[in-house]
Amino acid sequence: MAATLQKYHPQVFVRFSEKLPEGWLSNPDLMLPQTQMDSLWDFALELSQEPTLGLLMSQEARTHSFGLLGYIVAHSESLQQVYEHALRYQSLTQEGAGRWQLSEGKNYWELSFSLLPPVSRCAAQIREFVVGTWLGLGAALVAESSVVTEVYFEHAPQTDPERYQQLLGVPCHFEQSETRFRLARSLLGRPNRLADSHLLPILQSAAEPRISWPQEESYQSKVEVILKRQLRQGVSTLQQVAEALQLSDRTLRRRLQEEQVRFQECLDQVRYELCLNYLEAGRMAVWDIALVLGFQDTRGLYRAFQRWHGQSLSEYRKLGK
To answer: What are the chain's domains?
Structure first.
């Protein structure tokens, strides 16, 4: 963030740097509380008035910018390993801000990214930074111009859509159900010629005690990924999600119980995240949001939002959060 402002907006860099916590520029392993990080995003966007700040930041990102995670990724032996390690060790950077999830198709991988509530006012820029960074690093490590075939964003374009394709080099789609990018499976075996197979296990042994995310994707995460995609099609039942996972209803219910979570809790979490995203975009009426999220009417959405957020939907919209 600081490097981007210094390069593209040097006139505001001095004011921004004065607001930085001591040691932030010199210590890549320093993780700030999410509220403080959100405040820095707000301040940088206010100073620069740059709608593509996140994308410009992603152009400046290098593996060493991410401390131990970055070094592990830099020494991963293939493109597949680059993204597998990015998923496994994601909690080493800005824990609690968001999460990556992987889904696989016959001929592709998709990596989806979601910000965890409460969603920042700069959510669009943060998503663009994260997606732009990880598709750029993947391409650089295997010496390809691009390893991604398409990019999808939850939010509306912050500037001319052609600017996105210019910066990212691939078709970009907006106002989608989730933020994600797609990689062709045929590219996953591309080697990282700079990888050090002797150094990688040493770095991993240093990282393992510090990671806090599950080693394998939980059924709760799998259910939430499917719900996020299917809600736009009117799907929100346990039976339909179980079918997508190729499980029986009873097996899926048991798997969730083993993780001490109920299907309704997964559904509520996804509805809450999507609701905040739709409100942030500001392009849908409350009735349309209720319909997309599977409520019979707006009263159901109003009651649910009060329960989720501890604040009425009307108050939330008035405050413009």
So the answer is: 2-210 (3.90.1520), 219-319 (1.10.10.60)
Angle at 277 between CA 291 and CA 301, to 5 degrees: 35
Is-contact 58 140, C-beta < 8 A? Answer: no
C-beta separation of 116 from 96 below 8 A: yes
Select from 307, 310, 286, 308 the least CA-distant residue to 298: 286
**Model confidence band, residue 32 (pLDDT cutoffs 50, 70, 90):** low
Q: Is the dihedral of CA 17, 20, 22, 28 positive or negative?
A: negative
Instruction: Give residue-wise pLDDT tens across range 105-152.
Output: 888 999 999 887 666 678 899 899 999 999 999 999 999 988 999 999
For residue 78, give the DSSP letter.
B
What's the rounded Cα separation, in Å, for the pair 263 and 19? 43
Extended beta strands in the chain, E state: 98-104, 108-115, 148-152, 172-173, 179-184
Which distant-in-sequence residues (6+ apart) come within 8 Å of 181 by Cβ? Answer: 110, 111, 131, 134, 135, 148, 150, 151, 152, 170
Predicted TM-score (pTM) of the model is 0.65
Give the residues across from 109 on adjacent strands: 104, 183
Q: Tell me: the pLDDT tens digits for 56-89?
A: 888 888 898 888 999 999 999 999 999 999 998 8
d(CA 206, CA 12): 38
How many helices and strands, by DSSP H and E, does the chain display? 16, 5
Q: In one letter, which amino acid is 293? A: L
